[in-house]
Amino acid sequence: MRFSSRVKSNLAWLGVMVSGFVIIDGLEVARVINPFIENMLVTIGINVILAVGLNLIIGFAGQFSLGHAGFMAIGAYATGIMTQTMSTPLGFFLSMGVGMVLAMVAAVIVGIPTLRLRGDYLAIATMGAAEIIRILINNLKITNGAAGLFNIPALVSWATVYVLMCVTTLVTVNFIHSRGGRAVMAVREDELAAGAMGINTTRWKLAAFVFGAATAAIGGSLHAAYIQTIAPDDFNIMASIAILIIVVLGGVGSITGTFVAAIVLSVLDTVLQNFGTIRMIIYSLALILIMIFKPTGLLGSWEFSFKRVFSRREVTSHE
Amino acid sequence: MQTFGQQLINGLSLGSIYALLALGYTMVYGIIKLINFAHGDIYMLGAFWGYYSINYFHFNFWLALFSAMVVCAIIGVVIEYFAYRPLRHSARITALITAIGVSFLLENGMSYLVGANARSFPQAIRVVTYHWLGLRVSNIQLLILGTACALMILLELIIKRTKMGKAMRAVSVDPEAAQLVGINLNQTISFTFALGSAMAGAAGVLIGLYYNSIDPLMGMTPGIKAFVAAVIGGIGSVPGASLGGFIIGLLETAVQAVGLSAYKDAVVYFVLIVILLVLPAGIFGKRTREKV
Amino acid sequence: MSSVLLDARSLVKNFGGLTAVANVSVHFDQNELVGLIGPNGAGKTTLFNLLTGETPVSSGSISLATDRGVQSLNGRSPAQIAQAGISRTFQNIRLFKELTVLDNVRIAMTNHYREGFLTSILRLPKYYRTEREMTAAAQRLLAIFDLTAVADQPAKNLPYGTQRRLEIVRALATKPKLLFLDEPAAGMNPEETADLTRLIRQIQHDFHITVVLIEHDMSLVMDVCERLYVLEHGGLLATGTPAEIQRDPAVIKAYLGGD
Question: Transmembrane residues, as ranges (chain C) (predicted)?
Fold first, then answer.
């Protein structure tokens, strides 16, 4: 029986995801992965979730958002507050759902007026909106103000993060390769021409923005339940910038690049822990140098595709 | 009325610092369309130069101010040469990330070199407080306001009256056409960075004197606020940046005066968003329509 | 006798103090090939932009005959007007440069296919069906216009003349009733222009739509157009068949100058 390259590539991706899980699980059981490394892996997973969503907004819809941490905060606080009384895995997923809905509502409220702006103006407006969200959290009673929330029940393991990372990425990639994803990319390429072709540009921009906000909320929920402590300052402008750096470093418009950058940066960060105070100096120099020598990011807009690998093989075998 | 006058004076002093910083953002953005994230850190370096030059070289205030401007101008030019110039033809988001990298480097480099703790700025000028119509005005506030205004007028003259200023305006409108008529692009951009950074250096020394406390991360928040000011005024517009700076200074002081200091930044960002929605290119910004 | 497809009455567009279009009334009939000519700065592209909703009119009315009766297009967005059945190309080619030729065409079909968000992200069977149908429809169009070989190329890699052709194909993919072509022959060599002439005839013949083109190449205009509008200084100077226009003293004066 011969499979089409589509079926083969879907199976290959499933295989990659399952074997990734089995390998990490095996290393956990064999105690190769200590809490320190596990922490690194979870950070990578959460960063991938956050950056994939932001890459959809920036890389595919072409809308420069600098407010990702604001939506992350909504997810984190939804989980932090709700799991205090519902300390079960079900409670966690419920809180994540609530966080996503709230983040999407916030994204609609922020997006409808601001997405009319272009480029850097949009960036600064979304940054302002995220700061407003953070300042509100900083001053509300239910969020415990500037002190934040601690002793959040540990309802999340590395496995939860891994599975949600796979699901988020899959859903995002599927969206990109659909009718809607192409409409979103048309807006990025030429908004005016897209409108003239009947694409409701406002609607598709907003769709990408809201989608990205929902994924940011997932990342926030996982962060809250894994780290168990959150404070408003965890979600400031610098947090938004940290996610932006992953996207740009990996390559704007490349999901593969986002994975590579999230891994590279987390490993770099872990290795540099030993360097004490000059850690951030090395980090910033690395950032500058990578940008100067690789201005389109590590992978540019290149994307790894099993489908391409298989169809290429089919072509060569026919010859 | 009295408190209103008092807050007005406080707001104007703070606003003039934002305005000085906003000028650097607006000029650099106008000419190479880059949000120079490291600009707030140049201001921090200016403050530290003031600190060391007064404490160790025993400079007087004016000499410290002037030398800080020169030192910051040089630093600004060096940063542009090494970090931004290689990326002039890359995507703008790449240059932005580099600018963020430079900002991290300056902040952490200074934390490493001088320690992360805040230190008190030397009292280069003895504080005298004048009482006038029931208002309290310190000589420092007058000095800040006066120096800032003088520098802004000087800058306006440089941009409007000198050959270099004309070149700057030409490059900001169309860099390629400017080169065709014989303007040296690199030189003009370097000059812009020098001017903007000098303003930031001056702002650093002035703020040190005003708040009396400096630290390596002091540039972060004012930097972002000043950028917001530049956007409100219409990025690329020099009078707009000054106006935006004063608006933010007054707004912050006013929000604090009515007892909502916890929401001071939120109000600033809210006003920013509202202004952008009404005037998408800021107050003095030119709305450019895409030609079909 | 053909019926009126688009009817624009007393259109005015002011930019500040400048009147770019002054009281122009035009109408385009079903299945007609109309040319819009005039010297540079006469307001031709502005008129296109008014009719496609790119720029709002200062005053005047625009109405289009659709399947659901005659509709007013005043105040509608470009996207809504495109959905109502008007498509266009641009004077400076505006393709989705980084995307493939196939995607450029499929994007223009977005509104002809419905697909729920869950269908897309979960790849339900309907997703594969929609993809197959869109791709097949796009491939059919590409085949008609000899673009099959470059279907997987990014649009930016195509030669200039082919990009112009792709832009026309993309416009056709929206299934318009009325197609505006803004200087389709600009920058083309005589051979390419001859191809284009054939192409425009073929479009009108195979797709049964109305084509309106702005063009400076008089041989092309006189060759393909059934009726012409001549604009000058934002106003309508003359209208008629190519033969009538060529004899019109006002047009001759506008083009050749002198008293």
Answer: none
- Give every residue of chain B whose pLDDT is below 70, as ranges: 1, 287-292
> How would you class B271 by CB atoms within 10 Å of its CB: exposed for 0-12, middle for 13-18, buried for 19 or more?
middle
Return the domain boundaries, chain B.
17-223
Domain edges within chain A: 5-313
pLDDT of residue C1: 43
pLDDT tens-place string over residues B166-187: 999 999 888 899 999 999 999 9
CB-defined contacts B:C, below 8 A: 5
Interface of A with C in 154-173 (CB under 8 A): 171
| Domain C4-94+159-256 fold | Rossmann fold (3.40.50)
- Which residue do the tokens 């932009």 mark? C49
Q: Using the CB atoms, write b or e for C122-141: b if 16+ within 10 Å.
A: ebeeebeebbeebbebbbeb
Please report the pLDDT score of residue B91 as a whole number: 87
Tally of CB atoms within 10 A around C162: 18
Most B CBs within 10 A among A121, A191, A269, hence the mutation to make, goes to A121
Find the mean pLDDT for residues A18-27. 92
User: A44: helix, coil or strand?
Assistant: helix
Nearest CB neighbour to A237, from listed B92, B98, B224: B224
**Mean pLDDT within A81-99:** 96
Q: How far is CA B104 from its chain centroid?
A: 18
**How far does the CA of residue A63 sit from the closest CA of chain B (Å)?**
11
- Mean pLDDT for chain B? 91
Residue A4 contacts C where some CB pair is shorter than 8 Å: no
Q: With an 8 Å Cβ cutoff, are B265 and A291 in contact?
A: no
User: A5-313 adopts what CATH topology?
Assistant: ABC transporter involved in vitamin B12 uptake, BtuC (1.10.3470)
pLDDT tens, position by position, B190-237: 999 999 999 999 999 999 998 889 999 999 999 999 999 999 998 888
The C-alpha angle A145, A148, A150, rounded to 5 degrees, equals 145
